[in-house]
Amino acid sequence: MAWYPGAEKMELQPESDAQPAIVPTQVIFHSIAAPWTPRRMYEYWRDSTNLESHFGVGYDGTVGQFIGTQTRADANYRANRRADGTGAVSVESASNDRHTDPWTDAQLAALVALGAWLHRQHGIPVRVCRSTDDPGFGYHRLFPDWSDSGTACPGDARVGQFHDVVLPGIAALVSGGGTGTPLPPPRAGDAPARYRVTVNGLEYGYGAHGPQVQEVGEALVASGHGSHYTAGPDEEWRDADTLNYREYQRSLGYTGSDADGVPGEDSLRRLLGRLPSPRRVSLAHVVAAARTDPGAEQGHRTYGGEVRIVEQALADEGFLEQRWVDGSLGTRTVQAYAAFQRSLGYSGTDANGIPGQRSLRELGQRRGFDVTD
Ligand SMILES: [Zn+2]
Question: What are the residues whose beta carbons fall under 8 Å from the beta carbon of 101, sequence distance 6 or more?
Fold first, then answer.
């Protein structure tokens, strides 16, 4: 039954005695859509609704605690208490009635100090939760599982402060480097970065051009980080791409220069499931060659450039003699590909020597080529 020494204790009953114990592994921040003091929040939960939080933070930075942090609170839907007994510590905060205003400096200082205490008290790691039950810090709308019908809480301004001020402030405080009164980040730090990097032979960042740029843009949209596009993503890397990529990096928990909107190998891999390469092989082309070349006249070449890439990879893996690397996907190459498929554990028609997407991607990842449909 942990009570925060920085809060006024206003114990809610019957919740405090009646609700089950939790092992707190997460902290979730909210805006209450009302300009209330902690006392008024307490009265609201006592008299009107049972969706209480553990803590409430007023505009002036005063903190109230309503139930102990090892007792379940009910504001976070499936994160309240999971089957394994872990659950979230819930932190409400005063806001305007549409929860669109930023936290005040006093609220920011209070949230940082509270976050540092929760880290020390319960070992909650100072990072963004990476999944719905991953230990760390988050905000109400971060995962759908944390609200029963969707929510915008705590609002865009506070989500930005969460990443830019609250989490860095907690990190500085627990490492002994901070005073507990975080400063807002300089505005210049918000200008989109304008430089390019080369990852696995392809360029990304402001001014980069090519199909790899469009692929990243489409993956950002699909992962919910497309809000800065006014027109759909295309093959030109513009500021909107950088801003969307920055949001995606922040969602991974990256901070500082690691979250400047210019891709690195790790974030690209996590976004796309693989690293694109300038050596591209179309699965459809290779399959067409595998169906055409063996029955055609000796040395027939369908899509010979792409076939040669696949053959060289099979040779490098030890399944094909180098002298058969000739750009013609003939009988020997089909046999070599079938042997490669068997080495992956495939059998029957899955090991018939006709490339499939999974086996070709595996070969590409091992030998540095990219597979398109
Ligand atoms: Zn909320």
Answer: 95, 155, 157
